User: Which sequence fits this backbone?
């Protein structure tokens, strides 16, 4: 598998493309081929048994995003604010475009068009910039940082949206969101007490696995977002005294790649790939590209000293987080519209990765 | 804007504008697209292991699930106030006081399902008169098409409020055993309740293209109720069939609704036949396994010159004639002006009779 990935990277480099890490291009189709619609090696029953692992993978992903934030300097806060602005613009453009067309189409969704549009908007807001080369100007590093930071707000909005989708009641959703913030925070405090007192790496590894499992499992049980649970726990550890965040980061790094791979394969296998989803995918890709370029264009003009002028092109690659949102919504709702959203985001992710690769061809700009 | 002016813009601005123009153009083209048909989507995966463990729902949990389903499906439903008509003859205060029922008690409340934002489908009963819709006091729904054979009607109803996101209900096929939500209309509004379906046998009904799903001999819900899954997907309409209660699947309902929308109320063909079941004597003497006997033919009816009293009808348009009701329902659906072909036993002779 590594050889194939290397070969792809080399081919892309030979074509003049930047070596963007886009595992989705490889593993989502593999998941689709192995899934119930393909060879059925990953049957519906197998998918059902993978649910707990996926909840844990989502929590781990939220943890990794949270640990990557480390907003401690004034410059980081400014970047976070503008990254969030860019995410809001993307969510707004995608949601507005989708809600207009979905209402026009009157698709058999079984849910309000606005609900699906917001889920697509949240999934579209995530981005993963390419790792800059040493020869790249500093603004490229800022673009990568921006791509990391713009995941924060969608995770928070996604957490509220999942609570809303599972409770279905605006009044009880506040209570649900509060519970879904307090419980991971409490688990994080418990983890902080455990990690700080564990000397042996093996003992610590067991604690880390247990805590991540607890975060994912409790979030699913409470009808909340495992991504948000991971983010909240990471925020507690980042700002808590001691070196808990570093311990968790080191341990999670070993699990990161297998978890991402499993999530991508799972997403490919779970997506129903219906005509409805394919149609929405076209809409998703078009509006997402517009949203990202518009958000990047506005932020690049607001922060000319920090970000590159072509910031939007850097943010086109959606990474794994967009798919993680769609998978999370589908696990929480398990309905026709969430399946269509997952299909649209899966196809949209592949298309966006290709577009991102081609958008980065051309003159480098500082 | 001159080409030179555009050329002076930065590469990013030009890329952004080009993307927006291309995307808007593509979206305008896509907006003309209409989804051809409602498709069944197996989106919901099987229950996960943790869910299986936690599936022993208490009654409180069941109630909260039903409440959640009600919120999901509420934009698709509305309750119509109907009446079976005012009492005949002149009315005085004395006759009013002597009547067994107080004023307004002849109102009934039926549930309607929006098939378009301004059109709803409702169960049709003879003499149906719609007086209003709950929650829409300033508009009176209008009956626009009826299908007495299938007992459904289309009603022009007020559009949902602007802040309600109406969407056509998704379709679900029925797999059992499972809990479903049967929704009825009542004076208080949309009234859902959970119903457990242990099995759902299929029965043919000549009025519908697809088999119906028998619920139970003891009615588990009322006629005219709409049945939904716990995910808010429509399974069908509860209707009387073959002396029991059955679910008319959503696909059959959709086909019938589309016909009503396109062609209006259908004209029913009456061949003027009075039919009786085959007697035991006829079975023995004619060595028949099935059929229905023509008892009488109305004077001047289409079939008068072609069929005779005492004929045994064995088939209509190639389909076996099993019961008098089935034959009459099948004949009623013969399009106006079209002929019907009967397989008939007359005496010891087997004939094929075409009634134009």
Assistant:
């Amino acid at each position: 598998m590594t050889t194939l990935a290397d070969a792809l990277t080399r081919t892309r480099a030979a074509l003049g493309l930047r070596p963007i890490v886009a595992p989705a291009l490889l593993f989502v189709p593999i998941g689709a081929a192995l899934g119930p619609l393909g060879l059925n090696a990953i049957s519906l029953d197998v998918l059902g048994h993978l649910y707990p692992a996926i909840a844990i993978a989502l929590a781990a992903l939220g943890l990794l995003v949270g640990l990557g934030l480390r907003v401690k300097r004034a410059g980081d806060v400014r970047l976070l604010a503008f990254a969030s602005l860019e995410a809001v613009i993307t969510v707004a453009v995608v949601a507005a475009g989708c809600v207009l067309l979905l209402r026009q189409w009157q698709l058999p969704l079984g849910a309000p068009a606005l609900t699906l549009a917001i889920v697509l908007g949240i999934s579209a807001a995530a981005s993963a910039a390419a790792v800059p080369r040493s020869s790249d100007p500093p603004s490229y590093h800022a673009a990568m940082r921006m791509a990391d930071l713009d995941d924060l707000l969608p995770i928070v909005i996604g957490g509220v949206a999942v609570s809303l989708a599972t409770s279905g009641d605006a009044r009880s959703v506040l209570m649900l969101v509060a519970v879904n913030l307090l419980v991971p925070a409490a688990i994080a405090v418990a983890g902080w007490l455990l990690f700080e007192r564990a000397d042996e790496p093996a003992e610590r590894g067991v604690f880390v696995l247990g805590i991540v499992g607890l975060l994912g499992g409790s979030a699913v049980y409470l009808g909340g977002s495992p991504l948000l649970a991971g983010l909240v726990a990471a925020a507690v550890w980042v700002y808590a005294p001691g070196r808990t965040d570093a311990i968790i980061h080191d341990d999670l790094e070993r699990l990161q790649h297998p978890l991402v791979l499993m999530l991508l394969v799972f997403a490919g296998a779970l997506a129903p790939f219906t005509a409805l989803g394919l149609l929405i995918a076209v809409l998703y890709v078009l509006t997402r590209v517009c949203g990202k370029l518009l958000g990047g264009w506005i932020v690049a003009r607001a922060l000319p000293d920090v970000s590159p002028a072509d910031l939007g092109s850097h943010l086109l690659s959606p990474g794994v987080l967009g798919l993680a949102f769609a998978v999370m919504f589908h696990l929480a709702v398990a309905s026709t519209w969430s399946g269509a959203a997952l299909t649209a985001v899966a196809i949209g992710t592949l298309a966006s990765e290709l577009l991102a690769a081609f958008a980065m061809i051309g003159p480098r700009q500082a | 804007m001159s080409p030179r002016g555009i050329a002076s813009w930065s590469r990013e601005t030009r890329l952004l504008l080009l993307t927006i123009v291309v995307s808007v153009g593509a979206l305008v083209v896509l907006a003309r697209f209409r989804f051809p048909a409602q498709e069944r989507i197996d989106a919901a995966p099987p229950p996960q292991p943790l869910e299986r463990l936690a599936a022993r729902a208490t009654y409180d949990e069941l109630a909260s699930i039903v409440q959640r389903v009600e919120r999901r499906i509420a934009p698709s439903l509305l309750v119509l106030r109907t009446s079976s008509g005012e009492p005949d003859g002149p009315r005085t205060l004395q006759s009013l006081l002597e009547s067994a029922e107080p004023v307004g008690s002849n109102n009934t409340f039926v549930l309607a399902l929006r098939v378009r934002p301004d059109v709803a489908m409702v169960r049709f009963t003879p003499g149906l008169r719609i007086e209003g819709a709950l929650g829409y006091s300033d508009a009176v729904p209008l009956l626009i098409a009826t299908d007495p054979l299938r007992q459904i009607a289309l009603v022009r109803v007020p559009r949902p409020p602007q802040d309600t996101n109406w969407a056509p209900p998704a379709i679900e096929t029925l797999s059992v055993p499972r809990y479903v939500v049967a929704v009825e209309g009542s004076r208080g509004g949309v009234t859902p309740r959970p119903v457990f379906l242990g099995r759902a046998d299929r029965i043919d009904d000549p009025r519908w293209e697809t088999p119906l799903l028998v619920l139970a001999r003891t009615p588990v819900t009322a006629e005219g109720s709409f049945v939904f899954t716990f995910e808010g997907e429509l399974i069908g309409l509860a209707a009387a069939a073959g002396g029991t209660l059955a679910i008319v699947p959503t696909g059959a309902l959709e086909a019938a609704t589309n016909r009503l929308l396109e062609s209006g109320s259908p004209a029913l063909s009456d061949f003027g036949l009075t039919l009786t079941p085959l007697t035991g004597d006829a079975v023995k003497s004619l060595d028949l396994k099935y059929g229905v006997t023509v008892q009488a033919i109305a004077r001047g009816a289409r079939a008068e010159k072609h069929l005779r009293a005492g004929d045994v009808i064995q088939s209509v348009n190639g389909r076996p004639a099993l019961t008098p009701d089935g034959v009459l329902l099948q004949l009623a659906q013969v399009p106006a002006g079209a002929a019907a072909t009967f397989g008939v036993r007359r005496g010891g002779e087997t004939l094929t009779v075409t009634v134009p």
Observations:
- Residues 74-105 of chain A form the longest helix (32 residues).
- Chain A touches chain B through 61 residues (CB under 8 Å).
- Residues 1-5, 10-20 of chain A have pLDDT under 50 and may be disordered.
